[in-house]
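Please decode residue identities from the backbone states below.
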């Protein structure tokens, strides 16, 4: 399904022609949403007069381009979204051609050929911004520099606009974004207000494997012109180029970009005197001043007004995760909570610093684990999403030696402090999930300390129980809040935590875990019925023997396993009806799970599982799947929706019943039961606990 989102702000003069062009362009039965940024003219009336079926989404303020687009996307759940400026006029067949381009495998965004009213082609395709390209444009001019790919961002070759192709990014006046891309990337970055938000989004799409595809058969006339004639808009666009580089590459490289852009504007200001250089002089003033983000409308007082009372900036968040963003499942609660926070606070996730050094005889896949950690450390600091940073410090996880523990704490702390300083995180909220982070965090200045007690790590078989247990006890005693996802574990430790203990249930990304119409081709080739599991296949938590028994006693069904494995999989794949797909990216999990007839949770019976609250349970339910699980305490709250088995025999019987009868409740009811459990609501609660009265 398609939704067309048009963001308006005092657009009465142009919105009507834009809307009237949609039907011939191939809009069909698409939803058309006009997101109005509190226009003070007749924009909304003109829109309704041109297209009575239009849906008007008022923002109640001037939320900027990204804010308006995000509001439109939020109102168009489940749809591909065509984003249009109100001064766009689509030619006949343009939408049809864009949708065909979007269907090309690997494509996440499709863009049209843009022209002026007289047919002159707009150079709308761009290369990735670099300091070298900014210098080339400063010294040669944008069009001349664009002839040499290394020296110019602008694609100026005439042939590039005559044939389909891909680009790093493109002008955001008209762009069609697939639902898969929207779900994977999340919202546009609203802090730019205007300009660079589409650049950031399209570059981020490319980094997630989604191509930006240019389709010349799709033609649109773009009136445009405001940026070229308005000094304030030119200054904002220029300053945002530097802000974009800072957010993507850090302060040091942003300083170099700032110098290159300053040189460009200074040359133009000197060579174009009078009114011709006014916009460049405005850009120079903006670049010299350069506040961290543009001031939003209404954020400043009128001249002569008394200064408003100053309030402290909200704190950022530093989360010491128990997993590694670069190779573990990103559905883990640490990552989900921090991603939900990143839209409101600056977030730094510190990848797991481990609980012991991998060693032969006590750790499986030693070489593989060491190599993947080194690859993660080599990335050091990256920004996968706006406001969301991930760092991989180099640790020395020798926690059995007091001396080496201190050395490791100093080493990791120095790296984290340096990154916090660079990001402006002076007194952040510290969220600790892995107990070994306590040595690092103990002396660091902070707004608050939250211990995210997701598991009893001292029970993990590879851990030094005495050392890890002591660190856990320190955190339980010293944390401002102790957050539990397990009611059982919270009750067991109530004497240690008292009123500081809080239950914070896991959430679920309901929009992401929406059932696909068809499973991926490789899964579709697996004979049904299919009994499926996705997640880490670790012998400590997954009962591999139970999976073997299930495969043997249900030869008519296929057992589908999706996930990285530390267990020896040969004993399972030896069965002809077992198909192990290995690691599948989080973005593709819902599509694969949509091909399950029954979803299973075959857990071991140990202390770890008794204190567990698996996120995948809510993900299975969001997909409307019948679920069969071994028993554990947290299931007491889901027994009306899940078949629970206490023995291997009962587990096999429950799977057979689920295959024959479906779930205990209809799929739509299973999904509806978790609709209110969003990660955003969990993040709201986390903010309340961290920044409220303690």
């Amino acid at each position: 399904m398609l939704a067309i989102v048009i963001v308006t702000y005092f657009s009465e003069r142009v919105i009507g022609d834009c809307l009237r062009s949609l039907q011939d362009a191939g809009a069909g039965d698409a939803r058309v949403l006009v997101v109005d940024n509190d226009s003070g003219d007749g924009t909304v009336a003109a829109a309704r007069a041109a297209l009575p079926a239009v849906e008007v989404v008022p923002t109640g303020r001037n939320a900027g381009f990204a804010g308006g687009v995000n509001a439109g996307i939020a109102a168009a759940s489940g749809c591909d979204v065509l984003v249009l400026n109100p001064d766009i006029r689509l030619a006949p067949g343009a939408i049809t051609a864009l949708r065909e381009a979007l269907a090309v495998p690997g494509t996440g965004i499709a863009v049209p050929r843009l022209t002026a009213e007289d047919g002159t082609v707009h150079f709308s395709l761009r290369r990735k911004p670099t300091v070298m390209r900014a210098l080339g444009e400063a010294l040669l001019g944008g069009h001349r520099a664009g002839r040499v790919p290394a020296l110019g961002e602008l694609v100026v070759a005439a042939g590039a606009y005559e044939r389909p192709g891909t680009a790093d990014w493109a002008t955001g006046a008209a762009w069609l974004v697939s639902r898969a891309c929207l779900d994977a990337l999340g919202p546009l970055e609203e802090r730019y207000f205007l300009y660079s938000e589409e650049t950031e989004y399209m570059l981020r799409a490319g980094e997630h494997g989604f191509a930006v595809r240019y389709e010349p058969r799709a033609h649109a006339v773009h009136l445009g012109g405001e940026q070229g004639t308005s000094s304030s808009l030119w200054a904002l666009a220029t300053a945002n180029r530097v802000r974009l580089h800072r957010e993507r590459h850090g302060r040091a490289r942003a300083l170099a970009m700032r110098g290159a852009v300053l040189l460009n504007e200074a040359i133009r200001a000197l060579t174009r005197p009078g009114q011709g250089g006014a916009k460049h002089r405005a850009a120079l003033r903006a670049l010299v001043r350069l506040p961290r983000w543009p001031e939003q409308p209404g954020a400043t007082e009128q001249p002569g007004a008394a200064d408003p009372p100053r309030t402290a900036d909200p704190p950022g968040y530093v989360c010491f995760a128990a997993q590694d963003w670069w190779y573990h499942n990103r559905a883990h609660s640490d990552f989900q909570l921090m991603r939900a926070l990143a839209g409101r606070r600056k977030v730094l996730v510190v990848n797991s610093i481990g609980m012991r050094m991998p060693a032969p005889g006590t750790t499986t896949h030693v070489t593989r684990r060491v190599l993947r950690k080194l690859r993660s450390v080599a990335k050091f600091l990256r920004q996968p999403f706006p406001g969301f940073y991930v760092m991989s410090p180099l640790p020395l996880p020798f926690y059995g030696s007091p001396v080496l523990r201190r050395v490791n704490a100093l080493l990791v702390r120095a790296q984290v402090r340096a990154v916090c300083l660079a990001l402006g995180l002076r007194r952040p909220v510290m969220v600790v999930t892995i107990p070994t982070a306590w040595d690092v965090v103990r002396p660091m200045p902070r707004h608050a300390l939250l211990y995210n007690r997701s598991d009893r790590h001292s029970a993990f078989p590879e851990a030094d129980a005495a050392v890890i247990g002591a660190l856990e006890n320190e955190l339980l005693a010293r944390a401002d809040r102790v957050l539990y996802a397990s009611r059982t574990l919270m009750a067991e430790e109530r004497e240690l935590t008292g009123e500081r203990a809080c239950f914070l249930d896991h959430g679920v990304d309901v929009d992401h875990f929406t059932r696909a119409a068809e499973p991926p081709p490789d899964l579709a080739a697996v004979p049904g019925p299919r009994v499926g599991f996705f997640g880490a296949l670790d012998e400590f938590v997954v009962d591999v023997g139970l999976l073997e028994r299930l495969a043997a006693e249900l030869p008519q069904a296929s057992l589908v396993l999706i996930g990285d494995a530390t267990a020896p999989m040969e004993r399972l794949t030896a069965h002809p009806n077992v198909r192990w797909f290995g690691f599948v990216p989080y973005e593709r999990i819902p599509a694969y799970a949509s091909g399950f007839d029954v979803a299973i949770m075959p857990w071991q019976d140990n202390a770890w599982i008794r204190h567990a609250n698996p996120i995948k349970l809510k993900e299975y339910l969001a997909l409307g799947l019948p679920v069969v699980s071994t028993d554990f305490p947290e299931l007491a709250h889901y027994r009306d929706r899940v078949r629970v088995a206490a023995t291997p025999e009962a587990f096999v019987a429950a799977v057979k019943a689920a295959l024959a009868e479906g779930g205990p409740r209809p799929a739509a009811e299973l999904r509806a039961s978790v609709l209110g459990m969003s990660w955003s609501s969990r993040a709201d609660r986390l903010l309340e606990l961290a920044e409220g009265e303690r």
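Observation: Residues 402-423 form the longest helix (22 residues).
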